[in-house]
Task: inverse folding
């Protein structure tokens, strides 16, 4: 089970969360990654945690002011990147281009989508993983794994029908170890979460709770 | 074989092309459609030709100023719609929403994409048909069927791997009956073309040439 | 005072509203226009009402699938067009291009914006008129003229500081004759409204009420 | 005269350029800034050079995956930011929001635009400076100051007519000290340049040449 903590643009201390994630991952043996803002990537990566970018653009070296180049975030320490997160929806052709850009820079790719049909679609673009996040549950108190379990199993089926080698993660409302365990039982091999850790008073305790059933 | 003539925003007479398409279709028995600008749909449909919209937005009745509602173009006479044309690329979630909007209004759907991987992706969204149009050939003199035949066969394979019931069309550079015939031999069941007819001095003659090998 | 009724994509009968607007305008002597969906423009214009498009794209004749060409909506009967409506926000360069496209096709232009600073900005692009519509009041029961009168007077000032020849309209929440009268007292020379007429059980009665204080 | 070097996503060493800029600025007394990719901001700022971001999004702390928060780039060491660069054109409402976000984080703002009309428009949004860059000259060998001098004087006039306190810079094709000097004679108080320094074999020498007439 892969736990990916998305720091978004929350007012947390990214280094504190990264250090906690690093330590809890080592203690529990559970794979934990942290997706940080571009300008924080280098200092997050310095903690030794598995570091992810939140987005890369479908571009190459060249004249692209204000865009995110996959090679640059990789050089800053990112090992993977989210693509097409619900807060950063892309054109289909740009998802395709971003997956290719990330692969060119040896970044692991996780493409997000709203529903099982879209999960099938993005799986066809050949990313390493896909993540289903129902928009209506994002940021809420109800976990996708309990509030809409069918969407997880349907997403797993939709991805498998297109390409069995693509991992399926899920997100939205996940904040406890039970949520993570339920997600695993539904066929997901990873979870995306954000506020449950990034906004927690004690991010380390929140992470320990999350991985407790997996350890 | 379905021949869909996209009038784009060319300075042609849409009614003249529509009448020619209607007549050539009846004489040859070949299915021919005309995709017109929204403001021309009603008078194009009055000719009796199979009328298509060039785009619909992922919206419902409501507060959507300056957008294209599927129900409105259907009421104006459209029977189908292009979605995600290379000159109107959409976010993945909006392609999904536009396909659903079109189906709600009983419009036949044809979702365009750049390459076989993206064709596999849009096929997963459940449209009636998909159309592969390599951007580098659009508007040129070399037909996709002769200039890049692998892209057509790969697109047919990519779509079949996801859903065998979705038709695969191709476009870009198609202007003669030979081009149409070649497309059919590669597995396409329809072609999209534009300037070859819309910019022709004699659209009727251009259409007759196009369908000649099919009649 | 100019009253522009924006039909958006509401499920109203555009011809019924257009006929009512035409008649009430003639009876009252108040200028009334109707902004319709592209596919409805021709039949709305046939009623003789002053017909507006809801949007034009910054394009010329050519390869622009699924976009709105100013010349085409003008040929369908539009005499003016909204640009940058809050439901269709454009890039600055595209507002500029759309104003130029509209002027090329002899369409009167009304560029919308959120607040006085943005009103000053769009006035600099040289449209015929600008319209301030505070997003938080759009679609509500409180008129901009009573709920946020400063925004109207500030918008009038901001536009005058840049170009005294540009008319300033206002919109959001306007549904009664009192609202229209208040808008005029604040310096606006026109109002944009939508649901107050388009969703009324009796659009003709709604229009008569609107223009009553002006007649 | 302010010389702002935009590193875009060029394959240069940002720290090398930053150190050269820092030293040449100190030696010549000419203000020189470097606009870097987000992921490079911290190490560029560590050189002590005046560091700029290439873009900020119109957002606040919160749920904004893959976007650039003004506060975060400021914390990484940025003192200013470009907004609406021609390679990153924004909606008008988002330019407004980005200027406000940057000011909230104490970032100096420079809003780019294509032509004098748009320069007048963005000046109305109250940035610290605006920069006119004719798209057709960007990346070319002809400097805006010699190839299209009227656009610079017209931009200066357009900005002054709206707000005399906003500085006017120019860019596109600037690569020599003569270009910078000409820009100043036309009324610009700063220049934006990119490839002339970022792609130079010897960035330090390129910068020395640029500031030579100003020292």
Result:
């Amino acid at each position: 089970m892969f736990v990916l903590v998305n720091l978004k643009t929350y007012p947390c201390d990214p280094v504190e969360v990264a250090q906690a994630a690093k330590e809890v991952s080592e203690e529990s043996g559970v794979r934990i990654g942290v997706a940080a803002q571009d300008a924080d990537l280098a200092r997050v990566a310095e903690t030794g945690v598995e570091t992810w970018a939140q987005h890369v653009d479908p571009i190459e070296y060249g004249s692209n002011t204000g865009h995110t180049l996959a090679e640059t975030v990789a050089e800053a320490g990112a090992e993977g990147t989210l693509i097409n997160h619900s807060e950063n929806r892309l054109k289909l052709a740009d998802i395709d281009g971003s997956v290719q850009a990330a692969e060119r820079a040896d970044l692991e790719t996780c493409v997000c989508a709203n529903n099982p049909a879209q999960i099938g679609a993005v799986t066809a673009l050949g990313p390493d993983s896909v993540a289903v996040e129902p928009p209506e549950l994002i940021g809420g108190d109800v976990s996708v794994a309990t509030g809409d379990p069918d969407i997880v199993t349907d997403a797993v089926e939709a991805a498998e029908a297109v390409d069995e080698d693509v991992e399926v993660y899920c997100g939205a409302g996940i904040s406890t170890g039970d949520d993570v365990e339920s997600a695993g039982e539904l066929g997901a091999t990873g979870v995306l979460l954000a506020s449950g850790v990034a906004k927690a008073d004690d991010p380390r305790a929140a992470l320990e709770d999350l991985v407790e059933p997996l350890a």
Remarks:
- The radius of gyration of chain C is 16 Å.
